[in-house]
Amino acid sequence: MPNRLIHEASPYLLQHAHNPVDWYPWGEEAFAKAAAEDKPIFLSVGYSSCHWCHVMERESFENPEIARILNERFVSIKVDREERPDIDRHFQEVFVTMNGRAGGWPLSVFMTPEKIPIYSATYIPPEPRYGMMGFGELLERIADTYAADRATLLTKGKEVLEYLRPKATIKATRITEDLERIAAKQIRQLYDRRYGGFGGAPKFPQISTLWLATDLAMLGGDGELRRIVGHTLEQMTRGGIYDIVDGGLCRYSTDEEWLVPHFEKMLYDNALMARMLLRYWETGGEERHRELAFEILDFLIDRMMEEDLFFSASDADTEGGEGGYFVYDYDEVIASFREGGIADPEEAARRLSITPEGNFEGRSIPRYRDRDGRDDPELTRAIEILKNIRSGREYPFIDRKIQSSWNAMAIGALFAAGVHERRYAEQAVRSLEALEGTMAAGMRLFHSTIRGREPSAHGFLEDYVWWGYALHEGYQSTLDERYLIRSVELFNEAIRRFYADGRWRLDDGEFRQFAEDADTGYPSAVGMAAWWAAELRTLVDPIYEKFLYRTLEVHSYDLMRQPIARLTLVEGALRFLRGDRILKGRPVILEPHRAERTHLGYPWVRLRTVPEEGISLCDNRSCFAHGESFGEVAKLLETE
Predict the structure, then answer these.
(1) How many domains does the chain have?
(2) pTM here?
């Protein structure tokens, strides 16, 4: 007998629809039941491709005894964090405040019907393990304490909520060009000189760090920062975190050398990684960086797209085991290589890191041992054989949710690639039209839906800012003025819904909390709002500079103190300090040079169509050079 989640659209919630737990979706019905029956609420937040979410489901939510306790003594609510980032963000902050460390998924929160938190954790084992109490025992203890000493729990919970309340005063300081030096220093300090990347295991791609390091290298001619980016990209794309068989990047590596990933693939990671590889190539990288960017985009188009819109994620697990689709048995590979005509099967396997002992639970995650492996025709044939082996396996579960912000990231990357290869621009145009047709109603954007169903969740700040990103990549790719017009409409709507004197709210609904300025899995919505304001200042009207300035001012103290945590906002500050460069001319003159513009040695060069003869070189205040040809003006920019 399914529970109430059977009526939901979220693939993650539907995964739990047949649990013996009497799950409720987030809504008034659950809170009213808890209040009427005087029960605490158990909130579980996760997402469809989360490995430890699956583990906790198998161990606890499918356990009849644990389900009995939950059903008798609690009201249980399931939330898809990708569908409701506002709920997730609020309770992640609750977790940090209660536990003094970062949270994660699955997130487990106990609270009153009035949403006052009383206990929080992440993964909880069914029996005592890892120094943790077993889930069943914990449930009984919380329920007993709630009945016997509720006043103490409420006092502590209210203290947590009071701590989270936004502070009335804002610390501000002057943003100076020292920001470049401080940010570069902090990037170098975190850089792993042996394996690339930043910090220790687990390692995430941290595209924001790579992007800003690339900008800083251009601004200051910093060869060391350039090497940091190149080394990190090399290590990631030759590591197990990058799937050399199907293409695409896994979410993170469990070890410091990028070998063993959690095998889920997220749309946002792949969209941003494709754009980063392309940017590195544009600013002086090798042809293989462009090829890798295209390979990722092709993976998204082939595996993660339907009717021009992109799905959210693919799972790490296959048939209940992590990574089963992705890894290889040595004997199976050697036999297939022999049958496929590989001259030296053992050597080909060795060069692809496929060994008798394996590198993941006795089996092998393929990766290139040497830098030139991608260019070897024999290994190319071997990869095709590995792909053929996979074709007989069950493909991991795909979360077919359509999410506005992540689709916009992918569309932006397609537009950027489309400057260099037309088919990607054509796909970007189709995908943007599909996104508009599915996830927008005039100025109102929606956050997520399932293909074929009407969206109901209204858009968050991140949906608007990433939509703006896609539109501006679209304008630079096509010079179609309609993209700028739509950008202005959506930015003005975002101002109305989310902006409050330099602060940006994550949502305008139940929690109305301010958005974080720190970059996490991908660039922060606040940082992208500053980026968007800078774009509109440059391409549309200087009036938008006031939104950029005020956003930077509100966050200036933390920005100058710890730029490494808010790298996208750092870019906005550097654009404000240094200004953009704009090449202005008629479309017929600019269009042939759209690709050439991306190779110019300044981070923020934009094209802007105007009804004038020749080409002008301008900054945000005035035009200071004019020429008859693009090459003539571009040379002036390079020597500026």
Answers:
(1) 3
(2) 0.91
